[in-house]
Amino acid sequence: LREQYGIREKQMRNTFNEARRHDGLTGENLVELLEMRLDALVVRSGFARTTAQARQLVVHRHILVDGQLVDRPSFRVKPGQLIHVKPKSEGTEPFQVAAAGGHAEVLPPVPGYLEVELDKLQARLVRRPKRAEVPVTCEVQLVVEYYAAR
Length: 150
Fold this sequence. Notes:
Layout: H1 2-5, H2 9-21, H3 26-35, H4 38-44, H5 51-59, E1 63-65, E2 68-69, E3 82-85, H6 93-99, E4 114-117, E5 122-125, H7 140-148
Antiparallel strand pairs: 1-2, 1-3, 3-5, 4-5
Helix pairs in contact: 2-3, 3-7, 4-5
């Protein structure tokens, strides 16, 4: 799970502890919180091919959330917020490839919790993602047991 989201142990532990505090199943909360990270949503939207590329796009200040520049890949996007590419960056090659749908063959289809307008390079988080919709391969229960025992 850490590998799929490209995060370190401390970030995973912090996210797990936050997931534990929310109502509902800890494992489902954990995946939902990880999926609401800006870098994860940039990949799901089709703006980047990989999580590493998404992190780079965010850190290099190409991504805006509701018109505000955000350069933290771990930024938690709230439902209703708009993620879009900075107007000055739209003309660069990586975003031209993304807008043309160049990443479609390597990425899963856009999940139901995202509304994406790829030609405009913008996406909106409509609601919190549900665990079943998140294209992550992992035995979440084992992750919960691992962190609960520590």
